[in-house]
Amino acid sequence: MSNIPETGRTRRVTIRLVVLQVLVLSLLATLGGRLWYLQIRNGKEFTEKAQGNHIREVVEPAVRGEILDASGRILAGNETKLVVSVSRTALLQQKDHGKAVLTRLADVLGVPADDVKNKVRLCDAKTPQPCWNGSPYQPIPVTQQATTQQAMQIMERREDFPGVTAQPTALRRYTNAEGASAAQILGYLSPVTDDEVTKSADKTGRERRLPSDQIGRAGLESVYDDDLRGTTGVDRLEVDNLGRVIGSAGTTPAQSGNNLVTSIDARVQKVVEDQLNQAMVEARTQYDKETSRNYIADSGAAVVMDVHTGRIVAMASAPTYDPNLWVGGISAKDYEALNSKDSNYPLINRAIQGQSAPGSTFKVISTTAAVQAGYDLNGHYPCPKSLTIGGREFKNFESEQFGDISLEKALEVSCDTVFYGLAYDQWMKDGGLKPKKDAQDWFFKTAHEFGLGAKTGIDLPGEVAGRVPDRQWKQSYYDAMKTSWCDQAAKGGHEYADEIARENCADGNQMRAGDMVNFAIGQGDTLVTPLQMARIYSALANGGTLYRPTIGKAVVSPDGSLVRDIAPHEDGKIPAQGKLLQYIDQATAGVITSGTAAWKFTGSGWPQGKIELHAKTGTAEVAGKQTTSWLTTYSNDYAVVMTISQGGTGSGGSGDSVRRIYQALYGVDDKGTIDNGKALLPKPQAELPKFNPDGTAIVPTAFSYEPGATFLDPAPPAQADQPAGLQLAAVEPTRGGGYGRGRA
């Protein structure tokens, strides 16, 4: 018998019963609350979800909108092709995961089985192209080149090809209108990924993009993707628990995407592409004495801009590619070629992503900086064959010398030593190696005012900002590189690179005299894009307005009604105004008539005196490479800029091709005869700003340059008299820096 008293045992049993009752009541309360939540609180939501389990959606892809040139020519459109697609979901239901199906399919299509298998595998970090980077639940296109006979074989033998379909599908087609590729402008499409589907869902959870969608990956296809892709249609079918269709739950018809009208003229685009290629071919026949071999001319870019609106008329980049390679899935061979060093990466749009030193084309900015700093616009400045600054000799191209010359003449003949002297003198005024707290830094400040060191804002993805190597950049670069420089310096090497590393380790954050004088001629660490220079020279042509470059002009519905206008946008004014603008205008006209570009325009099929043309040549030196050819030009209507990497001198590399572009624009034949009927863009020329002797503007009447738009030059105030010119007598030794020298 137990020794526990009866009363204690009863109490313990009672406590256990109470605890058990509490647990039971808690479970009942929890269950009741959960039932209330499911049936009352969220009953409607779960009822809708349950009903949704009996709904199956059949997706109808929307027809993508077209991309048109300024005259309505189709640059990117659609065409119907027989597309064979495979469902991965259906393949995975096979015992062998569809290997036999894919082998039979490859046999019907007449292609290697591995090619078909590779196209339906999913992309990841370790899987090379070709592979599928879209949703794994979306049918994967295997070929868009199926014949009618092949499609019939597949559809008639459905039991042999479970999950395989062959049906007409609207596919993207890049038309090469007028023979123009415009690949880097247009871009390309590829399937939407699951992450993109998820991220595109709005607050209600409704997907804005479906797994069947294609998305723009580059160019205009990317920027205007929301306008172009339209709305996918959905047919909702009611099915029973066996998946059999028992009715319709409604249909949302597909809506075609809107069309994009651009400022590109396909005929001009063709000419610019051809002339860029021709310039590179011709450059490769020219001998480079400094490297003892012909120029490589490995890449280049060209831009034609409407100076009154900032609209891009043509933009070419070389090397280029065929965007149709991406339609229906790109092959491993083509993908490798597009991303190969041997092909020099043709996917890059070098007009907005190619950065290089601008060479002497930068001197219009340096001229403006000098005037803003107080140097006499009408003064004369020494142009010796070289200057020794900081123990280093800075030369003119081929050691030319012109004595004391004006800034206009310095621009015309591209005298480096004039700008070396101006920049060095201003550097000394700012304190030299011990800069003043209020250092003016006119040359850097002016470059920023011209829009350099910042993106232009063009409606294309991937634009780069270039670089203005001012004091702020100098310090940030030093902070990033100091450890590397000092480690190299500690090794005690005696190569040139080792000496530079020791110098930079000690005080690489200082703005040295060499940095300053190199910057004044567009060398050293300065980087610009061809588009930035086209924008600057357009501003010189139109009276000083910096327009935001644009390619899109309007978004138009499939029925032709206007959805959205894309108007020109003013971003500001360049600091060159009034007398100074007129002065630069005269100097750049002299480059064509008697300066560094005259040999390409005088007696070479150009109607001197009939079409006003202006230019600045540039030959930028790049460490370890051949020189970069730059030619920046403008007329009353257009700015044309061409640059060729490792292409020789400015006018020598690009002069003939730029002249031919203008000849096509204005209908000029090789004898210099103008035929307006043959002009590709037969629009009247706007007058450039004219000025009175005191610098006040003679305002022209409103000039119509485009339907519904007018151009009226604002009248800038007269420039004040400037201080006397620079004296070079007090040049004192100080350490140089940077590298290279500019040429005409």
Automatic annotation (TrEMBL):
Gene Ontology molecular function: any one: penicillin binding
A GO BP annotation: cell wall organization
Residues annotated as domain Penicillin-binding protein transpeptidase: 300-655
GO cellular component, one term: plasma membrane
Principal location listed in the UniProt entry: membrane
Protein name as annotated: Penicillin-binding protein 2
Region annotated Disordered, chain positions: 196-217
Pfam families linked to this entry: PBP_dimer, Transpeptidase
Source domain of life: Bacteria
Cellular localization per UniProt: Cell membrane; Membrane
NCBIfam families in UniProt: pbp2_mrdA (TIGR03423)
Segments of skewed composition (Basic and acidic residues): 196-211
Family per similarity comment: Belongs to the transpeptidase family.
Swiss-Prot/TrEMBL keywords: Cell inner membrane, Cell membrane, Cell shape, Cell wall biogenesis/degradation, Hydrolase, Membrane, Peptidoglycan synthesis, Protease, Transmembrane, Transmembrane helix
Membrane topology field: Single-pass membrane protein
Penicillin-binding protein dimerisation domain mapped to chain residues: 60-247
